[in-house]
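ugh ok fine here u go
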Amino acid sequence: MCRYADIILPLPLPGCFTYSIPDTLAGEVKERVRVLVPFGSNKTYVGVVAELHDNKPQFDVKDIRLVLDNQPVLLPVQMKLWKWIAEYFMSPLGEVLNAAFPQGMKVTGTFKPKTETYVELAPKYRNEQAMHLALDMMERAQKQQKLFMEYLRMSHWDEMDNVCEVAKDELANAAHCTAGVMNALLERGFLRTYEKEVGRLNKGGEPDFKNIKPLNEAQATAYNRILLQMMGKNVVLLHGVTSSGKTEIYIHLIKRTLERGGQVLYLLPEIALTVQMRERLQRVFGNRLGIYHSKYSDNERVEIWRKQLSDNPYDIILGARSAVFLPYKKLQLVIVDEEHETSFKQQDPAPRYHARSAAIVLAQMCGAKTLLGTATPSAESYQNALTGKYGLVTLTQRYQDIQLPEIEVVNVADLQRRKMMSGMFSPQLLAAVRQALEKGEQAILFQNRRGFAPMVECKQCGWVPHCNQCDVSLTHHKSLGLLSCHYCGTTYRLPAACPNCGSTELRGRGYGTEKVEDQVMEAFPEARVARMDLDTTRTRTAYERLINDFSAGRTNILIGTQMVTKGLDFDHVSVVGILNADAMLNFPDFRAYEHAFMMMAQVSGRAGRKGHRGRVLLQTRNPQLPVIQQVVNNDYASFFSDLMQERQTFRYPPFYRLVNVFLRHKQVAVVERAAVVMATQLRRLFGDRVLGPDKPAVAKVKTLNIRKIVVKLENGIDMKRARQCLRSVEEMVMQDRQNNSLQVLFDVDPL
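structure:
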């Protein structure tokens, strides 16, 4: 009987921690079960047993206090994946545990499901006459009346038999109202609130394969080629233009996998996309489909985890990147849709893993195949396909032979010189949107900055408000009446006057989605406008309502950040406006053109998806740039060729692997000295592969000063040895007592 256990704790510390197994728990402690253990002088943590052994440590060990599971909560392949993520992405196992487990599995005792506050009409106002009476009573309280009318619109009380539930936060966002206005309506008894558990296990009904649409000739050819490629390749890239029907191919592949007794993991980059995809998959696969992402209640996420360990797991899991951590007993197919998306890469907190990479490795560990699908492949994936590492299948024909949208480039610099621009909107864009509305069609406007104004400035002296904790200017959020830091989340009141010169002439600089929304409502007062960004989609129901309302035609114009570029499928969108292409192209990052091309090509693909050709208005001050013409011509091959020449010349992926090293400390002197020492030591090992240290674009976040070192490693280098060298230099730097509290973070394959 083993006497000791190595345990993974949810802490950002290297390695496992050894505990002794008391006689009273000798028969209960097993590998991959959760245990409660003491740590430090007075703390306890829930950890996972990684290994049992009889090797007595050279130090005093503490006893395991409690075993929380009768059976392992991890499959062996999951533990193997955890260790791979920890090693490859240079992150402690404890941080992988933190990312993998739902919160309810990291605590003892029972967990309570999350609830949301919903708003409903008070019973005495639930008829048309009473509603009009209520509106009359609010005549002198215009803000309350506006909020009440917004509730009636969102809940569809005009339809009576199709009333929808409305979350309180979502209503406040949509109506741009303060808490005081909301509370006034509640106190006056027009509305009332109730709590509701959010998220329940899918009860999608019985599967019905009759709802699968037959593939057309082009889709069937692609489907057969995928199967042929998978006979010799573990990973296949499906490069299909927007609206070519890739999803139908996925559905046929899923059906084939289920018929062979396998499971499918279907990864999407954004939670918003699961709303539409869930509906499409449920029509076919019913209750064999499970949904898993961070907007679901903790209660549900734990239940899904346990269901996947049971004898009756979901056959298909549809989810965002965290779904890669779920248990899969018979995984045969992994689909990574929109594989190019940067949302698949976890940024903060650690582990900074890429879900696409983790999914490919998981599939290989399970003996499964991986299909990557996109209209705009990432440089790394396309290069892997061209060099034969991945299989490649192309689909160039749009569904029902609809033409790709006509993309019209609008020279903003010329229009501004001739004083023909109205705010963010060119005359061409305004005319196109107006024409679409007159025809009963819809429009999408893409602006990749949220908030009202990205920066506030004093007109007299040029003072700009900055965050006290971060080295960034504050974004003005008009609906909240606040300035917000998009790095640490701290909010500030908008000052009435400039603290530097006393001037009251404070003005917003630039355009965020909130300001775009205001100007659209002013230009098209008859239109029903919705905004889709981080501020309006903080709850799961908010995602669903925004997308469902737009799909059903209840809103005419959708304004959004990059969320609106990611694979959403709307039947009646005839116009797409890209308001500021230059903001993406001028970003100081070697991937800026790649990301800009992808976002512009993807959002363009939302136009004219069924019935007729769409129209895209691309506003830019630099229409002569080759990348603009490549977007216009949907010329991915030319874009990729230019990109590869540049990447090879300047030693960037896919020809080199990058590792970013970040050092953080509250004191500037400490972080600068440590960064210089670390860079010097790294150059002794890696030579001119090391760049820096430098200040990153944002050099201070949450009171911590940051310095950055970049290590470029050519393909073919021993990455395991390289990671060992990086770790050894880190250990040497951390041994210096002057570097107490210094943080050293690694970002492998950064985006």
